[in-house]
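Appendix C: a fully annotated inverse folding record. The material below is reproduced so that readers can follow the format used throughout the book. The structure is listed first as tokens, followed by the designed sequence.
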């Protein structure tokens, strides 16, 4: 059985290319924007979503 993407649906794992691609698609943003959001607010999906939607 393949590993689900993401492995933890509450956190963004920036070390996993597959997960970064998943979150970029979900949030409709670039990898750079996602990385900046995670650097600004941390890896919690709810915090990143709020940051990207402001």
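Designed amino acids, in order:
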């Amino acid at each position: 059985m393949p590993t689900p993407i993401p492995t933890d649906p509450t956190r963004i794992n920036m070390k996993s290319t597959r997960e970064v691609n998943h979150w970029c698609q979900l949030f409709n943003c670039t990898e750079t924007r996602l990385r900046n959001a995670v650097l600004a607010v941390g890896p919690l999906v709810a915090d990143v979503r709020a940051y990207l939607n402001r």
